[in-house]
What we know:
14 helices, Aspartate Aminotransferase, domain 1, binds the ligand Cc1ncc(COP(=O)(O)O)c(CN[C@@H]2CONC2=O)c1O, 2 domains, 7-stranded mixed sheet, alpha/beta, globular
Amino acid sequence: xxxxxxxxxxxxxxxxxxxxxxxxxxxxxxxxxxxxxxxxxxxxxxxxxxxxxxxxxxxxxxxxxxxxxxxxxxxxxxxxxxxxxxxxxxxxxxxxxxxxxxxxxxxxxxxxxxxxxxxxxxxxxxxxxxxxxxxxxxxxxxxxxxxxxxxxxxxxxxxxxxxxxxxxxxxxxxxxxxxxxxxxxxxxxxxxxxxxxxxxxxxxxxxxxxxxxxxxxxxxxxxxxxxxxxxxxxxxxxxxxxxxxxxxxxxxxxxxxxxxxxxxxxxxxxxxxxxxxxxxxxxxxxxxxxxxxxxxxxxxxxxxxxxxxxxxxxxxxxxxxxxxxxxxxxxxxxxxxxxxxxxxxxxxxxxxxxxxxxxxxxxxxxxxxxxxxxxxxxxxxxxxxxxxxxxxxxxxxxxxxxxxx
Length: 405
Ligand SMILES: Cc1ncc(COP(=O)(O)O)c(CN[C@@H]2CONC2=O)c1O
C-alpha cells in the first residue's frame, strides 16, 4: 500500500479529538506515540476473551495467553533480528531494562574501572550508571557534544582505555533528535573489550535496528514509543552476557527450584522475568510491531524526514528562533527557543490552540546545561503527522511570540 497519511490517521482514534475547541495537533511523539486501533483492540481482546496468568497453567485460557505472550516475544526477536528468542527480556520499559543491567554489573566492576556515557543521554541512562559507580567505585566518563548537538567521537576515542568496561549511549537523542553513529561506537568499544548498552527508546519508532548486525551487547526500548502500550518494553542481551549476570528480582517465574537451603534460578529469559508480567502489554507490543511493519520503516523514515525538513524550514523563518540539534543525522525532533521567551510560556500558549508539544529539560539536563538554557520547546513528529499540522504549529508559535514580546 502506498504511504497515505490521511488513511493512516484513520487508524488512530485520538487524532479525531479536539483540545480547547481546536483539532488536536499532537507533536509530543518523543514522549509517547499514539496508539492505533489494532493495538487498542488487542488489549481489549485479551481481557475480553483469554485473560489468564501465563506459563505453568494447565487450563486452556492459560495456554492461549501463554502462546500469545511468547508469540509476541518471537515477533520482537524477528523484528530486531535477534538470534535467540531467549535473548529477548520483556521489561516494564527502557528505564527498567537499563536498571536491570546496571544492577547486574555490581559484581563485575571495581575501583579503577571506567564507564563511558554520552552527554546526550536521558536521565534514565545516566543515573543508574552513577548509582553503579557509587556502589562499585568505578569512574564515570562523558563523551562531550559540539554546538550542533553531535557527539565528539575524537574525544570518545581518547576516553577509551583498557580500564573501560562499559559504554552507554542512546541511539537517538530524545532532546535534540541527533542520531548517533552507534555501529562505530560499538566497534571501538569492542576493540577495548568493553560491553555496550544502547538506549533505543527514541529510535525504534523511526528506524528498524538490526541488532545482530550492530553486534551490540545490550539494547533497550519501550513499547509506548512504538505505538504500543505503556509499562512494557524490551531488553536485548547477548546470551553470553545474560547468562553471566545475576537475576534482577527474586520471585515466582524466575526460579528452577526453591528450598530453604538453596534456590536455583530459571534459565533465559525467565531468570529476568520475576512475577506476573504485563501480559496484555507484552501481547500488544507484538501488535504494535505488526502495525509499524505493515506501514514499513522505509516509508516511515522517508515521510518523517520530509516532515523534519519542512518543519525546520518553516520554523527558522521565525525571527529570533534558534534550533538546538542541527547535525546532519537527525530524526524528526525539533528543539527550539525564541529569544527572550521562556519555553514554558510558548508551550502553554500553543496548547490553548490545540497543539501538544513538550517544554522543559526533557530528562536531559546536561544538554540544557551545555547550551546554558533552562529548557526548550520540543516538537516531535511521527508518521501520522502532516504538513498542515506543522503549519498550525508555526502559526501558533508566531502568535505566542507576538503575545509574549
Ligand atoms: C532516550 C530515552 N531514554 C530513556 C527513556 C525512558 O523511557 P521510559 O520512560 O519508557 O522508561 C526515554 C523516555 N522519553 C521521555 C519520556 O517523556 N519525554 C521523553 O523524551 C528516552 O527518550
